[in-house]
Specification:
Number of strands: 10
Strand order of the largest sheet: 1-3-4-5-2
Bound molecules: S-adenosyl-L-homocysteine
Radius of gyration: 20 Å
Helix content: 25-40%
Strand content: 15-25%
Mean pLDDT: 90
Shape: elongated
Low-confidence stretches: none
Distance between the termini: 23 Å
Length: about 240
């Protein structure tokens, strides 16, 4: 089923923007009379019938509310160090496809990229837009929020009540050891930057009661590979055990 998003709450009949109409007609190849799923600004989704065109804007009529399933169950949050070039863009896109519930960019000591306030805001807006596009493309009914860039201390302050899994290449405990806990409780997977975690960062994370360092195997993975394999593994386990 084709899916779209609006920036307003859906009540009765409504107009899509010219851009969304273009996406609907040209990219998703829908026509008048077809049904699409539209998620509104409150996260509510509706089956909507395309009633026709008014100028360049499609007119849609909600016909039934959609049962939400994507947002159900414990949350999986990806907290990953900001990466250089477009690697974090890529990570946001893939994590959204895999079903991650929230993405938190983290500024760490050995990040190659150091963002100032202005660039941080620009990047976060851009990442949120990438998450929206990826959600549209893969047919998710919700868009994972991308938080403002956090420090590790802020991550622990804001999310320290969750289970925090930290893939760390010097750890030997396998990631599977965290699987049961990660499948039952809201979980944050925290990935280091290209340069790895600083020793004091790992020491700090280990002081959190609900934090666990794990290994993803003997090879050293690039940060984006580690993020996707860890995120994918925990997401999958969580879904399977939730059934
Ligand atoms: N500092 C390292 C590389 C860091 S890799 C070095 O250059 O030697 C980037 C991040 O990916 C790490 O901080 C860690 O979170 C994760 N990672 C990579 N390989 C891993 C592995 N085998 N097990 C667990 N985590 C790993």
């Amino acid at each position: 089923m084709r899916k779209l998003f609006t920036s307003f709450p859906i009540g009765g009949e409504f107009h899509l923007t010219a851009d969304d109409t273009h996406h609907l007609m040209r990219v998703l190849r829908a026509a008048a009379g077809d049904e699409v799923i539209v998620t509104d600004s409150r996260g509510a989704s509706f089956h909507c019938k395309i009633n026709g065109m008014d100028g360049k804007e499609a007119v849609l009529l909600p016909v039934a509310r959609v049962e939400e399933t994507d947002a159900a169950g414990p949350e999986l949050i990806l907290a990953a160090a900001v990466l250089k070039n477009d690697k974090f863009d890529w990570l946001v896109q893939k994590a959204t496809e895999l079903g991650v519930n929230r993405i938190i960019p983290i500024q760490m000591k050995y990040c190659v990229v150091k963002l100032n306030e202005k660039r941080r805001l620009e990047r976060c807006k851009r990442w949120q837009k990438i998450a929206l596009e990826a959600a549209k493309q893969c047919g998710r009914t919700d868009v994972p929020p991308v938080d403002d860039v956090h420090s590790l201390a802020e991550l622990v302050r804001d999310y320290g009540d969750r289970f925090i899994v930290v893939p760390y290449e010097l750890e030997t405990v396998p990631a599977q050891a965290a699987a049961v806990a990660a499948s039952r409780a809201d979980t944050v997977v925290c990935i280091g930057p290209e340069g790895g975690f600083a020793r004091e960062e790992i020491e700090f994370l280990k002081t959190c009661e609900r934090c666990m360092t794990v290994s993803l195997g003997r090879r050293i993975l690039r940060a984006e590979t580690a993020a996707l394999t860890a995120g994918g593994r925990f997401f999958f386990l969580r879904r399977v055990s939730a059934r």
